[in-house]
DNA sequence: TTGTGACTTTAAGTCCGTG
DNA sequence: CCACGGACTTAAAGTCACA
């Protein structure tokens, strides 16, 4: 499983959980709306700086965004 | 605490634990020798692709490299 | 509310070397 | 074995108008 896929999935899932739109999250994280969109569609491999800013916007830990549900199985 | 700092610390600590040189890890992860050095000195903020490749080279999860020991306190 | 293409600027990442 | 430098190529960061 690609790390981008894991990140994109966790990002979208957590954003929905918090009830935020891409626009609202973008504002919280100090990023552009379309950039969040790009990350969710796996256009880019985000840098850890961006992961951190998004994590703060979602009020979670950076590590949570890279955590794979099936980590124990794929290791 | 900066995410780069956390990453750099975890990277160096885990690499030492595994008994690998920067050169050996670079080879394992398919990265440049000097780049690993740069990451440990916090010159660059790595992309999640690089985090993932390094994690594989160290035989750990990507999330482990971004995990902060004092996460609960700094949140 | 989100996806997408086009675009420019900045930083990542490689490869050569040195002490 | 590692810190550090210069020069280089590629990918990400960041913004916009439009569907």
Automatic annotation (TrEMBL), chains A, B:
Is this entry keyworded DNA-binding? Answer: yes
In terms of PROSITE patterns, this protein maps to: HTH_CROC1
Coiled coil, from the record: none
Which SUPFAM superfamilies does its entry note? Answer: lambda repressor-like DNA-binding domains
Q: Which residues form the HTH cro/C1-type domain?
A: 11-65
Q: Which UniProt keywords apply?
A: DNA-binding, Transcription, Transcription regulation
Task: Give an example GO cellular component term for this record.
Answer: cytosol
Which is one Pfam family of this protein?
Answer: HTH_3
InterPro entries in UniProt: Cro/C1-type_HTH (IPR001387), Lambda_DNA-bd_dom_sf (IPR010982), TransReg_Diox_bact_type (IPR050807)
Q: Which GO terms describe its molecular function?
A: DNA binding; DNA-binding transcription factor activity
Per its UniProt record, what CDD domains does this chain match? HTH_XRE
Spell out the protein name for this chain.
Answer: XRE family transcriptional regulator
């Amino acid at each position: 499983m690609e790390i981008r896929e894991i990140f994109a999935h966790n990002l979208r899932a957590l954003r929905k959980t918090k009830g935020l739109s891409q626009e609202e999250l973008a504002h919280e994280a100090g990023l552009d709306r379309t950039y969040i969109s790009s990350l969710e569609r796996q256009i880019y491999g985000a840098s850890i700086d961006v992961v951190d800013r998004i994590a703060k916007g979602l009020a979670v830990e950076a590590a949570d965004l890279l955590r794979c549900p099936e980590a124990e199985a794929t290791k």
